[in-house]
């Protein structure tokens, strides 16, 4: 089971070590042999994984999933791939085949009742002697039957105790006792540059051991806002999904999950889910069969250097509040649009994803301290989180022109538009600085420089008094975002004339 190009995958590690075998003689084309002492020294500097494998090899097992074909009507798709099972086509896509986003994988044969069951493979590891094992959600997702293969050739049917798509964690139980269990470590203590080893079943080759180093921590991936990945240079192949990542102490520090690839093959970028997060998710899944996450009730965005400058910040850090949901935890705590969240409890918020993870890892109904920057001053607030399982609440008139520095034509909102957006101005056209920043026709300008727009005169004055960068809050397609516009100094001089 594998997903590529930042899809869910597995990660086994491989490292290539090159060293000089001898010194080139000046008077000869041959190489001299390495002295025994030098060879011994080189060998002593290399990591030795033999003890790690001996102690943990039996804790890593393989999993086979079987999915019965679903009967579904055909909606078209490409004739070239008609009749090929969806799982096979999906694998082709993960290996880089250029299917468009709207490509329909279902063909006329998908609805045939006599199609054979589709099988997939992955890796799992045992965390308790009574048969609790961990793997990836995407490995067991949609499985009708799960078979776990132990290293002593025994097979057990697996039962899913719980699975969480957002973090790609799944907990499986097999009816067995006195099983060897992996020793669990702490991902918090992981250091960039330290050696790691992965054990898995790439291409069904059970107990394959490879190695690498930790390349980075707390890595953000576009499709995973809840996971601060451990990045390694581990070689990843199909079948490694769900396998453990070990430190040199033989402790599990992560679950191999994803790779980045433009070709479908390993490119030196693989990602593991931190074990600390995995165990937190595991506890919720075993206890309740689902994960309990806190919810703040805000739409946030990461500050760009331009936005930071427009808010008077020297460094671009913090989570900018673009929208506050009505009657949400944030609303009750008096968090406002335009606030920049700097701390959640004692954790500094460097970017928006930091806040998302902190809130998601907190339990509903728990109280937390939030420090925000508002109008250049730090404000400390108390917030009691909602539950993320609650339903989410998102996120003809005289035309007035204001070209010049900003380059937009705007009009007041109609009565119907006011009911939807409150105060603001409708963008009729956009050019110049505004267009370069991404402001377009149909946007609704809600605030300028952190101040809500209640009239055209107020808007015009804010633009005229702005320095070189101006932050605009914009409502667009049901969402609210902040856009930093770099103004033209030449146009400012012309306006003053």
Describe what you observe in this structure.
By secondary structure, the chain is of the alpha+beta class. It has twelve helices and 28 strands. It has three domains: 1-17 and 44-68 and 117-291, Beta Barrel (Thrombin, subunit H), CATH 2.40.10; 294-387, Pdz3 Domain; 400-496, Pdz3 Domain. A hairpin with a 2-residue loop joins strand 19 (367-374) and strand 20 (377-384). The longest helix has 14 residues, at 275-288. The radius of gyration is 28 Å and the shape is elongated.
Parts with pLDDT < 50 across at least 5 consecutive residues: 1-5, 7-31, 72-81, 91-112, 390-402, 490-497
The first-level CATH class name of the largest domain: Mainly Beta
CATH architectural name of the largest domain: Beta Barrel
- Structurally, the number of domains stands at 3
Biggest sheet character:
7 strands, antiparallel
Beta content: 25-35%
Outline, from the CA principal axes? Answer: elongated
The total strand number stands at: 28
Give the oligomeric state of the chains in this entry, treating copies of one chain as homo and distinct chains as hetero.
single chain
Question: What descriptive keywords fit this protein?
Answer:
about 500 residues, alpha+beta, Pdz3 Domain, 3 domains, disordered C terminus
Can you give me a brief rundown of this structure?
The chain is built from twelve helices and 28 strands.
What is the fold's blueprint, element by element?
Blueprint: H1 36-45, H2 50-56, E1 60-67, H3 86-94, E2 118-126, E3 132-135, H4 137-140, E4 145-149, E5 155-164, E6 169-174, E7 183-184, E8 195-200, E9 208-221, E10 224-232, E11 244-247, E12 251-259, E13 270-274, H5 275-288, E14 294-295, E15 298-302, H6 305-310, E16 319-324, H7 329-332, E17 340-344, E18 347-348, H8 352-361, E19 367-374, E20 377-384, E21 386-387, E22 400-402, E23 408-412, H9 415-421, E24 425-430, H10 432-437, E25 444-448, E26 451-452, H11 456-465, E27 469-476, E28 479-486, H12 489-496
Parallel strand pairs: 7-12
Antiparallel strand pairs: 1-2, 1-4, 2-3, 3-6, 4-5, 5-6, 8-9, 8-11, 9-10, 10-13, 11-12, 12-13, 14-21, 15-16, 16-17, 17-18, 17-19, 19-20, 22-23, 23-24, 24-25, 25-26, 25-27, 27-28
